[in-house]
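Reopening: structure tokens for the adenosine-5-diphosphoribose complex, inputs below.
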Amino acid sequence: MTVERAAEMLATARHGVALTGAGVSAESGIPTFRGEGGLWTKYDPVKVSSIDSFMADPTSYWRVSKERGSVALAARPNPGHLALARMEAAGHLVAVVTQNTDGLHQDSGSRRVIELHGSGRTVQCLECGTREARAKVQARLEVEMPPRCPICGSIFLKPTVVLFGEPMPVAAINEAYELARQADVMLVVGSSLVVYPAAEVPLVAVRSGARMIVVNAEPTPFDSFAEVVILGRSGEVLPEIASLING
Ligand code: APR
Ligand code: ZN
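Re-run output (same inputs, fresh job):
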């Protein structure tokens, strides 16, 4: 019933927009942040993932990032990512706005991906600006903790992701809000919707008249604004919706 309704809404969408969170990558093996087994149930995000803690001691950041990076760099898109890419290719989605930094939407073929929290695939030296592929830095972490800039020797190498206390990428936020304002269907997948301003995106869409679908493993604070709420795993639900849309 609800999957059929979601398929109908997306089949007729002229400006469908998806907002995704860590839950859409869970079935690719990347732990989420909250909920069962989430990263923030093991570590205090302020201590290991804020710009202040990073600048005070990059090692505490890189110890956690080394563990998460080895999983994220090996991860492949799951059927949920692939279904979103199919929906975009068929014109039912115009973009995927994501809080994820793992690059799996791009790997799965999604073409218009707005990364609100940056990309974990690149590392930048905060002193001289040198950029390197995250995979290259990952390879050094066994013998270099914290990793050093190969050009200036700085220990302030940071993945190009938004840490707590850092400003969001303005262009990405503006583009996401513009997409939300024009959206007629807003598909929210795999997010606890507790981190702002990302969590504001679906609210902007609903306030502008969009119909909302939520696909999540557990209830979210925005379920009451949604026309359809599907409790389930995105890797199963999204392919089901995609195949119903395409008949
Ligand atoms: N399918 C669908 N939903 C799932 C699945 C799954 N297989 N597995 C987990 N979930 C749900 C969880 O129930 C949870 O509600 O995905 C949600 C993930 O929530 P978070 O871990 O809070 O991830 P997210 O909402 O993306 O966090 C936002 O917080 O720490 C910051 O920068 C980080 O981008 C992140 C932001
Ligand atoms: Zn440098």
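The longest strand covers residues 118-125. Residues 58-74 form the longest helix (17 residues). Marking as resolved unless the reporter disagrees.
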